From TrEMBL:
Keyword Transmembrane recorded: yes
Coiled-coil regions listed: none
Keywords for this protein: Membrane, Transmembrane, Transmembrane helix
Organism: Streptococcus azizii
Listed transmembrane segments: 7-29, 35-55, 67-86, 92-109, 129-147, 170-196, 208-235, 241-265, 277-295, 301-321, 342-365, 393-414
The protein's name: Beta-carotene 15,15'-monooxygenase
Keyword DNA-binding: no
Amino acid sequence: MDKILRIVKYIIALLPSMVTLTMIFVGILVLPTSFIPNLDIVASEIIYIVLLLIYGIRVSQKRIDKFYKCLYWIVGVLTILLFFIWSKKIFLIQPFQLLLYAGLCEGWLQDFRNYIKKNRDVFNWFNVYDYVFVAIVLFIGANQYILDSINNSIIKMLKSLDISTKHTEIVVIVLFLLCWFFLVPIIRASLGICFFRKQNSITLPANQVLWGTYLLGYFLSIISIALYLGIYFILHEANYNIGFILLVYNIYIATNALLWIPVYNSLNKLGQNKNKFISDLIGLILLLVAIVMIDQIESEIIGILTWFLPVLLPNFIGEIYKISDRYQQGHAVVPSLKMDEHLYWLTMISFNTLLVFNVISAFSLTDDGKHKFKEFLISILLDVIKQDTLSDIILRIFSSLIIVLFSLFLAWWLSKGIVKSLKNIYLDQSKGYFR
């Protein structure tokens, strides 16, 4: 019974990937019948039987439990009999057996098996959760009565709170976003990480935290949920049959094995150092604040940074040692040559980044105060996203970020060119600038 239960767990964990690969395998087997006239699905079944026999010999030679060897032949013979006696549609699932045994028995797939083994409970949870989520979305979308009931319930709630029903659409959007992009991803990611920790008996040292891992899992879950909802709206408009829709969803659910890899690696590293994570988070927040300020009061901020940042960097970073424990205890702390080089490059690149950004802004500003380059980026983003309801503030901030990154890219190469020219001029010993 334990062996059968173990097989079932592995099948659930591998089901989306195996179904996707099975469909590809079926397409390959059916391909000859599409080119050769007077051949039907029986010809493809004969090809499958030959492959089943050939790989069956290999399975018999493998050092695996006799139970699994017998199960291979029993399932193979049974599906062949069902194909000829009951329904030709059995052919669609027959390659699943070959792929499953290849995944469990082949030596060159050992790393893949180890990955699946360590994440078996996670993929069980993700696959079941995602299939249920997709089923709920399809069920609600196919029943107008449920949608009307939800809408009427929201209207009654607004009336009880003395809120105008004019805001019904806004409330529906907020509740939709809160449910699908907050509650659903949090439950999905949090329990997935909990299942992994329980299965692999992971305990954290005192100075390690999983805050970043949970955030990463949350954002990756948002990607999955967004994909499922996007597929629904696309396929719902096209009126495809339910079988095709489920097959498409299955392909995307199969990506769980790939999207989980960053979280898996983070868990194997036991998360992040608490102090380092807090400092990185503060740095990210400061960066976002700077981007927002650049978008809102661009000229003032750039002017201030251009004059003061290159001057203050050597003090802020170069003299950070003055608040170290060693320095406070009276020990001598001297910046290394690596720090001197780092400060030189940091000052050069920061100044050139601000310079390039200033030049771009100067050439892009029109007489009426519009930023031509930023407006161009916003139009491109709207064309790519194809969504007119996005906030103008978000688009402007994102376009400002693109301009900053573009300025940084140009500043990097400009700095390398300037340094190379200065080295040729001032570091030539024959010119006597340095001894």
